[in-house]
Write a structure and sequence with these properties.
This is HD domain-containing protein. The protein has 234 residues and is mainly α. The chain is 57% helix and 2% strand. The chain has ten helices and two strands. Helix 4 packs antiparallel against helix 5 and helix 5 crosses helix 9. The model has no long low-confidence stretch (mean pLDDT 90).
Length: 234
């Protein structure tokens, strides 16, 4: 896919080109029989260009304030601005399932559970750390339900970019096997949580290697930070 590296390219031509790409991708997606993963990646790339163009028009990407007193630019983040304390605080305040479960259940507690599940499945140290941090982007982008996220290429593009920044911030070098293991553990823990928090919805509860009841009832931010310290994530 063509990239727009020439600073002299006019905005109008860039917009016209992007509109053509979106129209072409839409036609291809409607006609395709195979999985939409490739088209999703292409849509995300196009939307990323549109986001960059809009930011340029607005004078740059916007920043948000953080609990520690600093700021971060979520759509163009600097690894130096990523803080484990800010992540713990934010994820402890964010609920899973948009707050629709039987009781408040934080993203922080979910993340700790995933980290333990990855460890119980024999994950590498990097995979275990990523299990804890796999939702760290939500500390700066907020939580979007997975069924909704699947149709928001702008969000998933931003999420992927910020996830790479988080990995850089904590020096995480993940193999493809690490990523697959964390994804699988996250999926299974998520299905387990669905069954617990929506008991009348008929969700199957998968068997897990780690019993979440062991986590106890400590405050979610402290639980997250204690796990981070134990894993050497600072």
């Amino acid at each position: 896919m063509e990239r727009f590296d020439d600073e002299n390219t006019s905005r109008s031509r860039r917009i016209d080109h992007l509109e053509d790409e979106v129209a072409t991708l839409a036609r291809d997606l409607r006609a395709a029989d195979e999985s939409g993963d490739e088209f999703r990646a292409q849509f995300e790339a196009v939307v990323g260009e549109l986001q960059a163009l809009l930011a340029e028009r607005n004078g740059g990407y916007g920043t948000i304030n953080t609990r520690s007193g600093g700021t971060i630019t979520p759509l163009s983040a600097d690894p130096a601005d990523v803080s484990i304390d800010d992540i713990a605080h934010a994820l402890a305040n964010l609920t899973r399932f948009t707050g629709q479960g039987t009781e408040p259940y934080s993203v922080a507690r979910h993340s700790v559970h995933v980290s333990h599940e990855v460890e119980a499945r024999g994950g590498s140290p990097a995979a275990i750390r990523w299990g804890l941090l796999h939702d760290a982007t939500e500390a700066y982008l907020a939580n979007v339900p997975a069924p909704v996220k699947e149709t928001l290429p702008g969000y998933t593009h931003a999420e992927a970019s910020l996830a790479a920044t988080v990995r850089d911030a904590f020096d995480l070098d993940l193999s493809s096997a690490d990523e697959r293991l964390v994804d699988a553990a996250d999926s299974d823990v998520g299905r387990y949580e669905l069954a617990v928090h929506f008991p009348d919805a008929g969700h199957e509860k998968p068997a897990l290697e780690y019993d979440p009841g062991v986590l106890g009832g400590d405050a979610a931010d402290e639980l997250f930070l204690r796990r981070a310290r134990a894993l050497g994530v600072e």
